[in-house]
Amino acid sequence: MSEQNANEPKLSPVEGHKSEGRFLRGTLPEEIADPAVEHLSDANKSLIKFHGSYQQEDRDARKTRAKPGVGKAYMFMIRLKLPGGKLTADQYLAMDDICGEFANGTLRLTTRQSIQFHGVLKGNLKATMAAINASLVTTLGACGDVNRNVLSCPAPLPDATRAQMMADCAAVAERLAPKAGKQSYHEVWLNGTPMNFGDATDAATVEPLYGKTYLPRKFKAAFALPHDNCTDILAQCLGYLAITEGGKPVGYNLFAGGGQGQTNSQPDTYPLMAQPVGFIELGEVLPAAEGILKLFRDHGNRADRKRARLKYVMKDWGVEKFRDVFYRDYFAGPRRDPREAPITGLDLHHGWQSMGAGKFFLGLSVENGRIKDEGTLRMRSGLRAIVAKYKCEARITAQQDIMLCGFSMADRAGVDSMLNEYGIPRPETLSQVQRWSMACPAVPTCPLALTESERVLPDVVKQLGSVLTDLGLSDELVSVRMTGCPNGCARPYQSEVGIVGRGGTNYTLYIGGDTYGRRLNAEVEDRVPIGQIVPKLAKVFTAYKAERTTGEAFGDYCDRVGLAKLKELVGATA
Ligand code: SRM
Ligand code: SF4
What we know:
Blueprint: H1 13-19, H2 28-33, H3 42-50, E1 53-57, E2 74-79, E3 86-87, H4 89-101, E4 107-109, E5 115-120, H5 125-134, H6 160-175, H7 180-190, H8 203-206, E6 221-224, E7 238-245, E8 248-256, E9 275-281, H9 285-299, H10 310-317, H11 319-330, E10 351-356, E11 359-364, E12 370-371, E13 373-374, E14 377-378, H12 379-390, E15 393-396, E16 402-408, H13 412-421, H14 432-435, E17 437-439, H15 457-470, E18 480-483, E19 497-503, E20 506-511, E21 522-529, H16 530-547, H17 554-561, H18 563-570
Parallel strand pairs: 6-7, 17-18, 18-19
Antiparallel strand pairs: 1-2, 2-5, 3-15, 4-5, 4-12, 7-8, 8-9, 10-11, 11-16, 13-14, 15-16, 19-20, 20-21
Helix pairs in contact: 1-3, 4-12, 6-9, 9-11, 10-11, 12-13, 15-16
């Protein structure tokens, strides 16, 4: 166990798993190889997350497996680490193969520009990891108490700022990746040479940023543009907002301390928006990333995992102290005030758009990020066929959507006809509310889910779409995000409508965020039965239609009229 002063709060058990885990190895090779081990020990369950995998169970199977002697249907989720959400055509096709061979036949695009495989059996874990790595994609650090997938606007538009952001995104991902942990990863999954780190090893030499106990909790970073906040940077631990002069990138406004998750039973947990720290020049991107990460490593809470995020360091210290400590102890460059650069937009990057030089990309809306074949909508087969035929690059957005990139003008008609053949809707044919909606996976895979999310949001969105059409509001941009618990994986606290699982079929209703991710919404009513969500929202939209000022967005209207009026409109019971 790591050494601890008697006056300090007791460390969380996960700190023990990390410090004794020999740089993420634990006894994973042994437990994974042993067919008699049906599920992992607690320590290995913690450590496997750093390798990009979670042990889960099929919650749908609980009823049929309730008989004595029949255990849980254990399975694993695997998450890729894909900085900026980029995949070559061959990598995309390999991931499609893998989901068919080893997982549940679906690819799940995530809110952090990645892909998850669900339903991988323990006996197939190694083969799945090997197949992923054979495509030169890793899963190391996709989960766990390290820097997670780094986000950047994936749109291949012909502008120097996005290209700079993508390069900086890759550089930050590489710099903040585990080093000794990478050797464990190789040993566990790829039959690499067993590590030889004795207890006397200087942790800071082999794992220079993290040491042997890594971070107190996960760490998240993203790049965005002021006119296109498609990565929701204010929800991140670390955000880089691009600053340009004369159309050229010159640096970034640095933000820190954003995050969404909260816990019902713990009122000192809440979503927070990231705060501006200062302006950095382009050459300071990596020192700034390291500095913020080390500040978190040293000052984050290692006793209470519910309060272990960087956002609570920011909240508890206040932004002035945070800046003082960062510039004094963690950043060698000059202290500069943030530049004036308000966030003014968020682009979903849907439809056909020019990449310049005669090339085009196509942004498609993927409902809740789930690429599957169901009925006449054969999204998985269709995307596969298009990628195989045109060898186009795939890019995943932080809004759970996908772009296919690199077509010529002559290719476009053929691609459009393949979309028709496979029943894949063009985004412009979908309702605005569907395009702007997201849901987390929740049941049946997520062990933390209190309610359904991904499987019920389509119906809610359909009903809401009809209400908006009847009110003549179908062209308005309204973001609706649903999660199966308050952890906030679909970032529901900064959308115009947030629907958060409470238990059974009841949800907490949040209203009044902003389509561009600049403001938190507010809790309007708790424990709303799912069937009442749309009727309650209809009342607010009716009032919005009657009372909005010219050009006023729905979220801005709700923010202006205030919580008391919103509660009255929905008939909140408490
Ligand atoms: Fe998340 C835990 C899914 C983005 C906050 N998240 C989980 C787990 C792994 C459940 C678990 O711990 O056992 C979920 C797996 C469900 C499943 O069956 O797949 C899960 N989170 C997801 C994804 C797949 C949701 C999605 O619809 O895409 C996203 C994967 C992103 C990725 O590729 O890396 C995902 N999670 C987020 C985000 C959004 C973001 O990062 O921009 C958040 C809110 C931002 C934040 O971190 O504050 C988020 N996830 C959480 C939390 C709350 C953490 C906290 O501070 O309290 C948990 C719970 C935890 O870590 O203990 C969690
Ligand atoms: Fe699971 Fe909750 Fe995240 Fe949804 S929000 S995936 S239910 S942890």
